[in-house]
Amino acid sequence: MYTFDSRIRYSETDSEGRLTMASLINYFQDCSTFQSEDLGLGVEYLKREHLVWVLSSWQIVVEAYPCLGDEVKIGTQPYGVKGFLGYRNFAMWDENGMYIAKANSLWTLLDTNTGRPATVTQDMIDGYGIGEKLEMEYAPRKIIVPGDGMKGEPIVVRKHHLDTNHHVNNQQFIDMAMDYIPEDFVVGQVRAEYKKQAFLHYILIPYVQAEGGLVTIVLQDEEAKPYAVVELKRKEQEEI
User: What does 63-124 look like in DSSP terms, one character per residue?
Assistant: First the structure.
């Protein structure tokens, strides 16, 4: 597994001094990006080959939220490839080697010339290698959306929502969804299913459904076609 060490920064924490979900996801994204760049399979390689990886789904399980100044290790490893699909695990550990968070993700490789799926290259398979699947309780990729939810204020895609692929970054969708949980709601698990890409100036309309310890947020277009579905599961306060 590819890893790097870090320390929780003030800019990565919330009002309680703990790592935010957005920062945790950014650590995971940075980890896979570092691995790709170190292997020569990063941004420039993908541009040259007219390819792009698009995230199809996340499942992130949080065991604990580290505090400002804590030493952490972040890791990632692909564990499977099937045609144009790539399966990748992520993890974060504390300084004692205990899990802080585990994650599963599914990625789709697209041809940027055609917008259609492209078979994972042999260079990628040889470079990344295929590791063992991380032990965790795997949830289904598809998220069941409850009935009609509460409509939120439309969100206009701004420049700060975009990444190097010029579409809304997957973490930004989750950050938008986090605005719809109660103040005392501590997230223990995030599931996100990405349906289609959103670009600068697009309008996203949130629909929110809360049921027990779950809050499901659908971010959709004006024709009710979803860009992303995010499910947030409550974590008991004493488990943090």
Answer: S---BTT-EEEEEEEEEEEETTEEEEEEEEEETTS-EEEEEEEEEEEEETTT-SB-PPPHHH
CA distances to 5, 72, 133, 177, 228 from 170, rounded to whole Å, are: 23, 23, 22, 11, 9
pLDDT tens by residue, 178-193: 999 988 899 999 999 9
Q: Environment class of residue 24 by beta-carbon count within 10 Å: exposed (0-12), middle (13-18) or buried (19+)?
A: buried
Q: Is 27 helix (H, G, I), strand (E, B) or coil?
A: helix
Nearest Cα to Cα of residue 67 among 100, 99, 26: 100
The model scores a pTM over 0.90: yes
CA 227 from centre of chain: 14
Cα 238 to Cα 154: distance, rounded to the nearest angstrom: 35
208 in Cβ contact with 180 (< 8 Å): yes
| H helices present in the chain, as ranges | 21-38, 43-49, 122-128, 170-178
What is the rounded CA–CA span in Å between residue 41 and residue 170?
Answer: 20
Rounded to an integer, what distance in angstroms lies between the CA atom of residue 205 and that of residue 99?
35
36-45 burial, b if ≥16 CB within 10 A, otherwise e? beebebeeeb
Contact between 182 and 234 under an 8 Å Cβ cutoff? The reply is no
| pLDDT tens string 101-118 | 999 999 999 999 999 999
Nearest Cα residue to 58 out of 199, 185, 175: 175
Q: Rounded to whole angstroms, how far apart are CA atoms 193 and 204?
A: 15
- C-beta separation of 104 from 89 below 8 A: yes
